[in-house]
Inverse folding.
């Protein structure tokens, strides 16, 4: 869907630059090169003005920490500004089944409705691994937990999928790679207290002793993401004006059109307006993989 939105946006921008019937080659270039270049322009301008933390690029990612592992791949779009929390749970089990917006917990599950409702459930293994939703209603008789929004497509919990009802969160302190080396990575497993980034991986000070959720907040570089990603869906909506003007400006400049100068002024103005409303705040949810 987002790819169609990207095609529509660049098609309109090219039309405004005089390309009534742009070739497929030009459309592809406008989408895959110029559109991403506009996003980079915004990021570069934000950095120059001291506002590199852009609200729409602040994303949340949920991963699974597996027993005896201490290194995890960072999301492909990770740019900077990482914070890390471990998610822990008292109530865990294997789901009996799932539906579009619910999951049936284990028949032996003894959590009360008061304890379950409002908490988040994390699917830690199986077909639904990595799904993270807030429980809005729980029936202690049927064991059915309703969640705040539908599970992602093809990731509905199935019989035997592992879950955790999250009731604790532990922030993990950052250290420079050399500092973590000086303290040494502990050989015994446990709950990590410190972490660093090394060779595009998140490295804990010890391997984990049990299954945890890993919650990351960071600033995204969307140029590495497909247009189907939620970050692009958001940008194509919230940054529509500056993206359209940026592509239009590049198309006119490519054609040596004198009106490119005027469109550039509009582009710069739109970019300044965008930066004024972009603030440091967390937004979306993505996923990442365990390092092999």
């Amino acid at each position: 869907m987002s790819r169609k939105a990207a095609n529509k946006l660049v098609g309109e921008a090219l039309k405004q630059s005089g390309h009534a019937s742009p070739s497929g080659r030009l459309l592809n270039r406008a989408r895959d090169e110029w559109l991403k270049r506009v996003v980079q322009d915004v990021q570069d301008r934000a950095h120059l003005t001291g506002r590199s933390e852009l609200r729409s690029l602040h994303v949340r990612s949920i991963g699974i920490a597996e027993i005896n592992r201490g290194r995890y791949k960072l999301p492909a779009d990770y740019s900077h500004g990482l914070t890390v929390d471990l998610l822990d749970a008292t109530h865990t089990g294997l789901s009996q089944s799932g539906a579009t917006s619910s999951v049936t917990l284990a028949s032996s599950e003894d959590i009360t409705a008061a304890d379950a409702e409002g908490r988040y459930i994390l699917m830690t293994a199986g077909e639904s691994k990595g799904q993270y939703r807030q429980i809005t209603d729980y029936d202690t008789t049927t064991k059915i937990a309703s969640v705040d929004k539908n599970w992602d497509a093809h990731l509905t919990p199935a019989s035997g999928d592992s879950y955790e009802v999250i009731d604790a969160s532990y922030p993990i302190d950052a250290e420079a790679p050399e500092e973590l080396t000086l303290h040494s990575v502990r050989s015994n497993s446990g709950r990590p207290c410190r972490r660093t980034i090394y060779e595009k991986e998140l490295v804990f000070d010890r391997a984990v002793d049990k299954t945890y959720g890993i919650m990351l907040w960071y600033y995204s570089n969307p140029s590495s993401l497909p247009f189907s990603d939620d970050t692009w869906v958001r940008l194509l909506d919230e940054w529509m004006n500056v993206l359209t003007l940026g592509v239009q400006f590049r198309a006119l400049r490519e054609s040596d059109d004198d009106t490119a100068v005027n469109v550039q002024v509009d582009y710069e103005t739109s970019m300044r307006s965008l930066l004024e409303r972009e603030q440091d705040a967390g937004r979306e949810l993505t996923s990442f993989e365990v390092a092999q």
Observations:
- The two ends are 32 Å apart (CA to CA).
